[in-house]
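Please, does this match?
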Amino acid sequence: MSKDYSDAADWAEHDMELPKDSKSALRGHAAAEFGAEVLRRAGGRPALDPTATPGAHSPRRQVRLPQELSDQVDELATRTATRPASIMRQAIQDYVDRHPSPA
């Protein structure tokens, strides 16, 4: 059985009285801005870089693969219950670690 919250929503949006200078309840434009900021911070997956500032995007690289290699990555991802992107990130990290910059 579904409930109709229309009356409660109408009251909250139009008639509810908030304490003056309330820090815990917002209405109108302030509520919309706050909600958008919460969604912006919470949206998406966690940052790959634990030191990244909230909302920062990780750099993106794209690579074309031969079909057979792509299929192997997909099969490995399925077999190890991980994502192809995680496998590729780890492969690149391993490669970079084996080829350090000259001192």
About this structure: The radius of gyration is 24 Å. The first helix runs from residue 6 to 14.
